[in-house]
Design brief:
Layout lengths: L2 E5 L3 H12 L4 E5 L2 H10 L4 E5 L7 H11 L4 E6 L4 H9 L4 E4 L4 H13 L1
Parallel strand pairs: 1-2, 1-3, 3-4, 4-5
Helix pairs in contact: 2-3
Length: about 120
């Protein structure tokens, strides 16, 4: 099972993802603030980051970029309520392994997390 960091500026969304993934046996750390999530990644090994693209101060893409500098082997899944080809391409080019469209589909999230952690 994986060490997973979740960053979503909507508290309830982060808690929902944490519940879904914790039930699958993962250890999940949920954040709403970009700086706290990046600081946590600087001190703790993270297998997977689940990052919302639209955040308060930075974009999830910027957070991904910072976290990848700290932990290059970390995998990532981006979340978006506004899917565009450009956003998907940018996320993938910065090292995201997958992305999910909001509202979160429980089965899709579980499947993608499992797939990303296995590879």
């Amino acid at each position: 099972m994986g060490e997973i960091l979740v960053l979503d500026d909507v508290y309830d969304a982060g808690i929902l993802i944490k519940k879904i993934l914790s039930r699958k046996g993962h250890t999940v750390h949920s954040f709403t603030e970009e700086e706290e999530a990046v600081a946590f990644a600087g001190k703790n090994k993270i297998d997977l980051a689940v990052l919302d693209i639209k955040l308060k101060k930075m974009s999830g893409i910027e957070v991904l970029e910072q976290m990848k500098k700290i932990q290059p082997e970390m995998r990532a899944i981006m979340l978006t309520g506004y899917p565009t080809l450009e956003t998907a391409q940018e996320a993938i080019s910065l090292g995201a392994n997958e992305y999910c469209i909001k509202p979160i589909d429980k089965e899709e999230l579980e499947e993608k997390v499992s797939k990303v952690l296995e590879n």
